[in-house]
Amino acid sequence: MGEPLLTTEKLSNHFGMVCTARDLDLSFEQGVLTSIIGPNGAGKSTLINLLTGHLPVQAGKIRFQGREITRLPIHKRVRLGICRSFQVVNVFPELTVAQNVMIPVLARTGRAWNPIRSLSRETAVTRETEVFLEKVGLQGERDTPATALSHGDLRLLEVGVALAAAPTLLFLDEPTAGMNPVERVRLLDNIRELACEGRTTFVVVEHDMDVVFSLSGRIIVLHRGEVLCDGTPAQVRADAKVREVYLGDDVSDLFRYEEE
Ligand SMILES: Nc1ncnc2c1ncn2[C@@H]1O[C@H](COP(=O)(O)OP(=O)(O)OP(=O)(O)O)[C@@H](O)[C@H]1O
Ligand SMILES: [Mg+2]
After folding, report:
1. In the predicted model, is pLDDT for residue 180 greater than 60?
2. Which H or E element spans position 65?
3. Any idea which fold 4-89+168-259 has?
């Protein structure tokens, strides 16, 4: 087990009568790619929203690298190295692929966007932007406006933008949603490689069990705001409660790996 990067203590959230996080005591370890799975409405996106500051914490605590961040606004968490991508694509459609990636690079190096200054002279920034484009395989689309990208490429761009902020901890909410199989494999290979590099620890919310079981070192199963199971892929696969929740869903997907 690595060092705990982010921990929660009795983290809770309710939307009216619906409980989406109930006294969650979680710990995300450095360098361990963790997937969060669970049926629709389990509270997966809510959890990411709470951890990244997109939703105010109603009860409980969050600590990052030992420091309490429960009430820290989004931008301060980003500055600490906690970033995310969204379940719904969220980039600047009118900017090119390269310009979208360049924004967090510029922000990180303390330089604001300056349309008057020629960006081509910002060679270090340009070079770094190029590296992130390569990491997500979009170097061939650098001058394409985001609005003209395919859905899969848009999602790749979003991951590229998140990576360009050089996060310590990166939450990806359904990164492969709506991708075709080729795009999906490309993104997963990239995530796997980036996770191995070790600079960023990934936490991924995913419905596709192929993705989850091939990527994760650890899987957290959420159900109605509670942790149903938390362990290695093998432990999750063997868990009776998980089987019950997934029964009639894509249970065949989840347990197909037993035969392999
Ligand atoms: N802002 C909100 N206001 C009220 N209810 C909400 C809000 N956001 C989410 N919910 C409800 O909370 C529950 C959990 O939602 P959440 O988005 O966290 O689920 P999820 O596990 O991410 O599901 P999915 O797999 O469909 O993305 C759902 O019943 C949802 O309708
Ligand atoms: Mg969700």
Report:
1. yes
2. none
3. Rossmann fold (3.40.50)
